[in-house]
Amino acid sequence: MGELGFFVIALFVFAAVTVAKGVRIVAQGEEWVVERLGKYHTTLLPGLNVIIPYLDQVRYKLVTKDIILDVQEQEVITRDNAVILTNAIAFIKITDPVKAVYGVTDFSEAIRNMIMTTLRSIIGEMNLDEALSNRDAIKARLRESIADEAIDWGLTVKSVEIQDIKPSESMQRAMEAQASAERERKATVTRAEGTKQSTILNAEAQLQAARLQAEAQVTLATASAEAIKRVAVALGSDDAPVRYLLGEKYIQTLGSLATSENAKTVVLPADLQDALRGMFGRPRV
């Protein structure tokens, strides 16, 4: 093989390399940024593309599908000085590859840092209870705050989700202690209130019972007085029925004492016959 042969082979190799470097096939879901002599020249879209070898260079290969950014957990201090832990996840999409690669050094890290900074700012304006119960509001404000900056970087923030938002371990211990103390306080108040109500109800019941007993005694005394008055009117000057009634009552009382469960001994008067005889009005024989 002579010099001509080597030249042809070298020319063939050069042509093959040139074609290989000039033809670019971009996959669906990607866009490539091409620079010519160090300056931005064009953006290659999905499909077959041809560039000038040795002058043009594919500088960046970007994914135009949705990108998932995981924002790591961080400590955030609320307005009432409570420390909480929170993290987030963002879904972004490259809408302008030129701005994405030339607008900021690392757009993913930039968006991630912006989310963390904005999240601290938003939660720092809230109290602990507000921060723990307003996840949707935080998410909306977060997305709104970073949307403009993202557009300047050729990005669209499709969604930002707050994954976790919870008190720190020390804060959880303090909250648990506070909750325990509050529960104990409520229990003490409830017990005291129950004792108070019980005492009041007991006193009211005793008062009501005393009133009813007094009324009953008055009614009984009135009825007794009226009965005595009527008996006295009915008897006139004859007291024999009265003695009979007293004797009968006396005997009934002795019978009650004898049948009582607590009565072990019943003492009868020695002159029982004389007493009964006196009650019934019979003179001693």
Automatic annotation (TrEMBL):
Q: Which residues form the Band domain?
A: 21-179
Q: Main localisation, per the record?
A: membrane
Q: Name one GO cellular component term.
A: plasma membrane
A Pfam family name for this chain? Band_7
**Record-linked InterPro entries:** Band7/mec-2_domain, Band_7, Band_7/SPFH_dom_sf, Stomatin_HflK_fam
- Tell me the membrane topology, using the record's own terms: Single-pass membrane protein
User: In which domain of life is the source organism classified?
Assistant: Bacteria
- Give one GO biological process term: mitochondrion organization
Localization annotation: Membrane
Residue ranges of coiled coil: none
Describe the family membership recorded for this protein in Swiss-Prot or TrEMBL. Answer: Belongs to the band 7/mec-2 family.
**PANTHER family, per the entry:** STOMATIN-LIKE PROTEIN 2, MITOCHONDRIAL
Q: What is this protein called?
A: Membrane protein
UniProt source species = Rugosibacter aromaticivorans
